[in-house]
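Thread: Newbie trying to understand structure tokens

Hi all, I'm a second-year student working on a class project, and my supervisor (Dr. K.) asked me to get a predicted structure for one chain before our next meeting. I've only ever worked with sequences, so writing a 3D structure as a token string is new to me. If someone could post the tokens and maybe explain what I'm looking at, I'd be very grateful. Here's the chain:
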Amino acid sequence: MAEVSVAIKTVEGNRTSDQDVEGSQVTYDVNAVITEAERGYQKLSLKFNIKMGTQPPVATLTVSGTATLAGEDVEMDALLVPKEKDMPPPVFMMIYQKVYSVLYLLCGSMKIPYPSPGLLKTVEVSAVKEVSAAPMDEAGGQKMQV
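---
Reply by user tm_fold:
Sure, no problem. This is what the structure looks like when written as tokens:
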């Protein structure tokens, strides 16, 4: 099985409203991109950028960095392909799971509602070397954009 490690390069949180929303419910629109950076023998480096905004507009969160896959080429390639239509590729969910704790802490310090750990549901392949997650809301509603 291929191993995935994540190195976060930047984290940014911007509160866009002074409205007290702690404990209230918001949905998160997500726009995320994974791009192949470098490929070598049994190693693949991917750059990622995940941008999240709330509805109603209370805050925006951005996290970016590099994910490194190590393993057999066939295993790594399988992580880049969605298993089902309208689902993210496994590598995307692995990255999101690893950066979720940072997003959780950021939301807590900004006193805004936390995003769901199972937030991302749909991706669309936009180029051979790039996988893009379409913006969506937390309830799973699709907002397709490439």
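A couple of things are worth pointing out once you decode it. The chain is about 20% helix and 40% strand. Residues 3-15+24-133 form a domain with the Bacterial Protein-export protein SecB fold (CATH 3.10.420.10). Feel free to ask follow-ups in this thread.
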